Amino acid sequence: MTATKGEFFNPAKLSSRDKAEATDHTARAIIAAEASARDKKTEKLRALRLQQAAEEAEASPPPAKKRRSTEKVAKRRS
């Protein structure tokens, strides 16, 4: 069985409308895939951020009250 030109090349020309539809379909598929990947990444990062915030809230004790320094009190009395 020998390969012929007709097996590899489409002898019928596509209309410009068919070409435009194929291009549109391909472009929309790429855009949808990128949007899906972006949404997936956003959800992953949001979950990590919330997890990190929860861990920080558990780990960090409430801030201690600041005491007045004795130098300021001594200067007022002098």
* Secondary structural class: mainly alpha
Q: First CA to last CA: what distance?
A: 112 Å
Mean pLDDT: 83
Strand content: under 5%
Largest sheet: none
How is this structure best described in words?
There is one protein chain. With 78 residues, the protein is mostly helical. It has helices spanning 5-8, 16-59, 70-77. The longest helix is centred in the middle third of the chain and has 44 residues, at 16-59. The chain is rod-shaped. The model has no long low-confidence stretch (mean pLDDT 83).
SSE topology:
Blueprint: H1 5-8, H2 16-59, H3 70-77
Summarize this entry quickly.
This protein is 72% helix and 0% strand. The chain has helices spanning 5-8, 16-59, 70-77.
Which structural traits does this protein have?
single chain; 78 residues; mainly alpha; 3 helices; rod-shaped
